[in-house]
Design brief:
alpha/beta; Hect, E3 ligase catalytic fold; four-stranded mixed sheet; ubl conjugation pathway; E3A/B/C-like; transferase; Probable E3 ubiquitin-protein ligase HECTD2
């Protein structure tokens, strides 16, 4: 921000604005800057609604317009002639620093930022070219960067002159649609580093408001121009917007800002502009920055369920909700929304069961409040399938698992083990439901036809139950699977509607079958005669139970040769066949199984990558983070046994660390909130040191005897964690 100069650089911001106002009154300007920035402004109108009808249940994104939006292009006014180059400007700055005379630099800044026309005159690459396409903004980005990089190191009167000019530009009366020069000026002004300082937030807010109120066609241009910004500066712009939202929500000095009731449009405007950058980011592969860089962790501390209910209830009204822009909500916050939504559904279902029981004058039974699953270890899959099919109406109740013949009481640990063993068995290659691809280390659906797809529905239901009951699973599906799982995110009412069909690309195939994808990529780049050298047709062959079967990728595909002209179509149809059509029935059953448990509008908030994290957790173990967050009962963290324990664990291989995590928590995956969310506890066991460690997986608790030396502790711990399947009491 504006760190240089006196500490009270803007003694009071209103004084600064008043000075500008007086000067403008002196030349008879009827647009009073006071109306722009004084907190006690009256007759402030809210922005037009910037959210879609929630009943359409679509995410806000500005990335779905055609390549060119045919909108009327207003006539561009003629620009003043400005000849200053980057080197000229840099020389002026160096001379000012050495001589102390900043007049030339001051004149440049005050002239350049005095109006949108002057901004274009200074920074447009060619003032005689219109630059009316999405491909080239026409902005001399290098010059813009140099000017802004120097700005914060100039005297305060120079910086104030820039802000005065920005106000002049924002006060301009607009007649008719914006020109492309106007859009260029907005794009340049957004990059002003002065807007990192809270003292400039009133001006920044009005800039954001004007950009948010632009037409969809204008937004389309801004989105495509923004994707050309360098990664570092793109990240700075995003961080500046996130900081603006955070400080408006929770101001460190509330007196710095107008009262919230006077500026309800600040946060919606900033969020809408942030949506433009999110759209630009999604147009690039790989993206400019990670999708997680758009998370605003400040939102973790607001009433998320109120946001969620506003989003659900108010439709296309003036009521703003962050849920309209889910990219800004962190995965941890989304997990809270989904969990609470699940809990409310569980309570509702359980309450209805209780009412039904009482209305029939039957004695209530506590078991009726749960989804009780009883299985035999020797018939795990068949028993689980029967139980879930028979109790389909209870799937949204809290899950409790009982292993027949075992005395374990399910406080969470048995449920975790049931998931783990069931997933391990279903995904075994001998079972034939999924194919494991060694090159990509992931599973994919077997394309073999079968008479009954109910087991695929079971796997989907398991994933739904895991999300619903906050259990992480060790499932290795490619990202494409989660994209299909959200296609669409809400189950369609018409059962004839196709589900689980997504737009797949060669990149998706690379994540599953890299060798095949590489071959298809070679076909696309082949410089010879494809038809003569490859001698292929629009037909594919697959082996099913020892029999080779052929499938046409399009009607009469076996008679259509693959040529240099149609090879792109061939590759796209081949990928679509492998990832969509050949496994449609299997994946549809899987889709319906998942949504039979997890049907919730909260799924609309999730990206495919976030669904994967919710289902599987993270495989990245950080035992040092676990050590920092561990609680102790009967021990102090400085006790010798505890010090031995962490020395041993931090020296374990990754495989042994995963076994320890599974032994103590019932899962070897890290939940969404990281190791701290495990609430891991080590308790002192007052038993003989000849005993092995004991775990209470329901509570993520490890009971550790006070072993006398590190060697004995390591030996007993490895034996314990390596033989940790089953629950029994003696």
């Amino acid at each position: 921000g504006l760190e240089r100069g006196a500490k009270n650089q803007f003694s009071t911001f209103s004084n600064f604005i008043t000075t500008i106002n007086q000067k403008k009154e002196g030349i008879g300007n009827r647009n009073s800057p006071t109306q722009l920035v004084i907190p006690n402004i009256k007759n402030v109108r809210d922005l037009p609604p910037i959210c879609l009808d929630v009943r359409q249940k679509q995410r806000i994104s500005i990335d779905t317009l055609p390549q060119e939006v045919k909108a009327p292009i207003p006539t561009e006014p003629s620009l003043p002639i400005r000849t200053k180059t980057v080197k000229d400007f840099q020389d002026d700055v160096e001379n000012a620093k050495s001589s102390g005379d900043w007049k030339a630099v001051h004149d440049f800044y005050s002239t350049t930022f005095d109006s949108f026309l002057e901004i274009n005159a200074a920074f447009k690459k060619d003032t005689n070219s219109p630059f009316n396409t999405i491909e080239d903004s026409g902005i001399n980005a290098k010059f813009v960067n140099v000017v802004y990089d120097a700005l914060l190191n100039t005297p305060q009167d120079v910086q104030k002159s820039v802000l005065k000019g920005v106000i002049n530009g924002l006060l301009q009366e607009w007649k008719g649609p914006r020109t492309k020069d106007d859009l260029r000026a907005y794009c340049i002004l957004l990059q002003n580093p002065q807007f990192s300082n809270t003292s400039t937030y009133v001006i920044y807010a009005h800039l954001l408001r004007q950009i948010a109120a632009l037409t969809e066609a204008d937004h389309h241009f801004l989105v495509h121009w923004s994707k050309k910004i360098s990664q570092r500066r793109f990240k700075q712009l995003v961080d500046r917007l996130l900081q603006f939202i955070s400080l408006r929500l929770f101001p460190a000095k509330p007196e710095e800002f107008p009262p919230m009731v006077k500026c309800t449009w600040w946060i919606p405007s900033a969020t809408k502009v942030l949506a433009l950058f999110n759209a630009a980011n999604s147009l690039i592969n790989p993206p400019i920055i990670s999708y997680t860089d758009f998370y605003n962790s400040t939102l973790d501390h607001i009433d998320l369920m109120e946001e969620y209910h506003n989003w659900q209830c108010y439709g296309n009204s003036h009521r703003f909700s962050f849920c309209q822009y889910p990219f800004i909500i962190s995965i941890a916050a989304k997990k809270v929304i989904i969990q609470r939504d699940s809990e409310q559904q569980m309570i509702s279902i359980a309450r209805q069961s209780l009412v039904d029981k009482v209305s029939r004058r039957q004695k209530p039974d506590m078991n009726m409040l749960f989804l009780n699953v009883k299985v035999r270890r020797t018939h795990l899959v068949s028993d689980s399938l029967d139980e879930l099919a028979r109790k389909r109406a209870d799937l949204k109740k809290k899950l409790k698992v009982t292993f027949v013949g075992e005395a374990g009481l399910d406080m969470g640990g048995l449920t975790k083990e049931w998931f783990l063993l069931l997933i391990r068995q279903i995904f075994h290659p001998d079972y034939g439901m999924f194919t494991y691809h060694k090159d990509s280390h992931c599973h994919w659906f077997s394309s073999f036809k079968c008479d009954n797809y109910s087991e695929f529905r079971l796997v989907g239901a398991l994933m739904g139950l895991a999300v619903y009951n906050s259990i992480t699973l060790d499932i290795r599906f490619p990202p494409c699977c989660y994209k299909k799982l959200l296609s669409p995110p809400i189950v369609p009412c018409d059962h004839n509607t196709f589900v689980g069909i997504s737009d797949v690309t060669l990149d998706d195939l690379f994540q599953i079958m890299p060798e095949l994808a590489h071959g298809l990529s070679e076909l696309l780049s082949y410089e010879g005669n494809v038809e003569e050298d490859f001698y292929s047709t629009f037909q594919v062959f697959q082996e099913e139970f020892g029999v080779i079967k052929s499938y046409n990728l399009k009607p009469n595909g076996d008679k259509i040769p693959v040529t240099n002209q149609n090879r792109k179509e061939y590759v796209q149809l081949y990928v679509d066949f492998l990832l969509n059509k050949s496994i449609y029935k299997q994946f549809a059953a899987f889709y319906y199984g998942f949504h039979s448990v997890c049907a919730s509008y909260a799924l609309l908030l999730l990206r495919p990558e976030e669904v994967e994290i919710l289902v599987c957790g993270s495989p990245e173990l950080d035992m040092s983070a676990l050590q920092r967050s561990t609680q102790y009962e009967g021990y102090q963290k400085t006790d010798l046994t505890i010090r031995y324990f962490w020395e041993v664990v931090l020296g374990f291989s990754l495989d042994l660390q995963k076994k320890l995590l599974h032994f103590a928590t019932g899962s070897d995956r890290v939940p969404v909130g990281g190791m701290a969310d495990l609430n891991f506890k080590i308790s002192k066991s007052e038993t003989s040191t000849n005993w092995l460690p004991v775990a209470h997986t329901c509570f993520n608790q490890l009971c550790l005897p006070p072993y006398k030396n590190k060697k004995e502790l390591k030996q007993k711990l490895i034996i314990g964690i390596s033989n940790a399947e089953g629950f029994g009491l003696e």
